[in-house]
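--- STAGE predict ---
source: upstream dedup step, 1 unique chain passed
mode: sequence only
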Amino acid sequence: MKSPTTRKRLRQIAILGLPVLRADSLFNATLIRYARDCGHWEFVFSGAANVKTFRFLRELDCDGAIVRIISPEMREEALRVGFPMVNISSWLEDAGVPAVRTDEDASGRICAEHLLAKGFRRFGIVRMWGGWFAKARSDGFLKLIEAAGYGESTSLFEVHASSLAVNRKEMERFRAWVLTLRPPAALFLTDDETAPRFVDACLAAGLRIPHDVAVIVAYWRQTSVDCEPSLSHVDVAHDVLMLEAARRLDRLMKGDTRGLRTIFVPPRGVVAMRSTDTLAVDDPIAAKAVEFIRNHSGENINVKTIAARLSFCRRTLEEHFVRAMGLSIHQFLIRQRIARANDLLQAEPALSLREIASRCGFYDARHMKRMLKRDGTSGPVR
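--- STAGE serialize ---
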């Protein structure tokens, strides 16, 4: 007679810094799925990231923990805990325990790439006081800007208070500084905590976003306060980060202590929103044409009507545009229409080709399909 199968013991896991009992974020959903399907875990404690909860960990009968270490005091308490843990925070450069964190340097670089591709050549960096991540992000941003040859046209604004304590004096100092950036310029914010306040300060100073100052932030939490205009930001791949942290903790709990170096998870890219939805053009005549085309590309316009609507001589307008943009007005207009068509082809619910062509300023669906095929940037046209 066969003996009954012994049920595998569930490992006891603690979480500090994440509300793990709610599966309403990529962090939590990934962690809960791993616990259920791979780790054979159960969560016995979930608390805030502070010194008190780290001390409480020493009293728990746990097999492991995933934590956010955000101060030297927490690091000291973490080192006294008698079971494996993995840190997922970038507040400290060295958290004292194995860590899985976002590649903050790469986050800064891809923000710089996004702005350079938009044609920006003048930049401002707003670096928050406090966590190591802010310096890592700004260093990555600045390195790429300098490599592109625009280091001397980049200005740094360092906030002298924590993100929770940015006061009126700091914001007045910021407004005076941001007005020294000659439009069109781009602003890189290293932290999302007070990003809306800096956006509001730009608007209060009379700067149009994104036309005078485009704004991008290295991180934007789903729970962050709303911001208008919507902020372009980095997709930091929360699901990949948490999956790597869970796998690392699993190996540590099984006694595998090899390769305890920090794992850096690269961001997926930039989520482009309205705050960078522009092109930087120094020539004021060409800039007006670019803005007009971007706002009216879906209408029945051509070079002649653009010049008339802007009250410019057609030849003068075309000369300024080619010199500033490196392509003709007609070529730019077609590119804008193609970009809009590609967006609408992916829209849900699906639109007819006739409707898309009409919305994008093409003569008809046949004309649009011919332009898309010639461009070669779109997928198969349904």
